[in-house]
Design a protein that fits this description.
This protein is α/β, with parallel strands linked by helices. Helix content is about 40%, strand content about 15%. It has eleven helices and seven strands. A seven-stranded mixed beta sheet has the order 3-2-1-4-7-6-5, sandwiched between helices. α10 crosses α11. The two termini are about 25 Å apart. The relative contact order is 0.16.
Length: about 280
């Protein structure tokens, strides 16, 4: 694929510096990843920045992912020492599990506080995640739109805002987003297929071609089941067949494969093609 997909390193440097400062104030780091591509949507820099902190991975958009592969990813991350929750923050499903896991992840910290005579100090949390992984939706769902900013705390850098989510949990409202950089082009392609990169900078027909190749190899019958077109031949032939079947035509009756590509990607992202995961853990 000819697209050179990259993020913006200038933003990244600033965001990493900011996080290096913020992380000192934090007990727990909650990282949202896209359950359809958990490793590609995970920012590798966070592992370095957040070492020695309690860590939770939230496999978000799990309702769109292949359940069997999601179970493999749960085992993969648990094996690496993370607490793991799968959820769909748009529907609030899994929120109760998050509460329980936060308490579990911070058990040692709460016990240490108790021994020192510190009672009920809220767990200070940072929520991180790349763009479009559902971070804002998650925070809003968690806060139930009743989040209150608790103002500056003693010993906390001026200007830092803490959102009180419950009696036992406070969230640091961090400005700026951490952006991943990736050397492997396949990571960029997976993120683009899932909709984490602005479509306007991409060749949609190339992208749909990549997705079609993946589905015909790993999810046989998914395309045929939705579009009633044969899954044989090259990806551009399958895309042309979809364009014909769905009446994607330009003036003069010529097939509009770009329109078909956009429709196909929309169908993938919304789950109409079924529960699909774009990568498996490497054992």
């Amino acid at each position: 694929m000819s697209n050179n997909i990259q993020w913006y390193p200038g933003h990244m440097t600033k965001a990493v510096r900011q996080m290096q400062e913020d992380i000192k104030l934090i007990d727990l780091v909650v990282e949202l990843v896209d359950a359809r591509l958990p490793l590609s949507s995970k920012n590798p820099d966070i592992d370095n920045l957040a070492k020695n902190k309690s860590r939770i991975i939230i496999l978000n958009k799990a309702d769109l992912a292949d359940d069997a592969v999601t179970a493999e990813w749960e085992a993969y991350f648990k094996d690496k020492g993370f607490f793991v929750v799968k959820m769909d923050s748009r529907k609030n499903s899994g929120m109760k599990d998050v509460n329980n896991i936060i308490q579990e992840a911070c058990k040692e910290k709460i016990e240490r506080d108790r021994k020192r005579g510190i009672k009920n100090r809220p767990v200070r949390t940072m929520v991180v995640g790349i763009p479009n992984v559902g971070k804002s939706t998650f925070i809003n769902s968690y806060a139930k739109k009743a989040a209150t900013k608790t103002g500056n705390k003693p010993g906390v850098t001026k200007g830092k805002q803490w959102i009180k989510l419950s009696k036992t949990l406070e969230l640091l409202d961090t400005p700026g987003i951490l952006w991943p950089k990736f050397e492997d082009e396949r990571i960029g392609i997976r993120l683009a297929i899932a909709g984490s990169i602005n479509d306007q900078i991409l060749n949609l027909e190339d992208l749909a071609g990549e997705a079609i190749d993946y589905l015909t190899a790993n999810y046989k019958g998914a395309i045929e089941g939705v579009y009633t077109v044969p899954e044989t031949g090259a990806s551009h032939e399958i895309l042309s067949a979809i364009a014909e079947k769905r009446n994607c035509l330009k003036k003069g009756g010529e097939l509009d494969t770009e329109k078909a590509a956009k429709m196909f990607l929309d169908d993938f992202r919304s789950g109409r093609l079924g529960k699909i995961t774009l990568e498996k853990p490497e054992v």
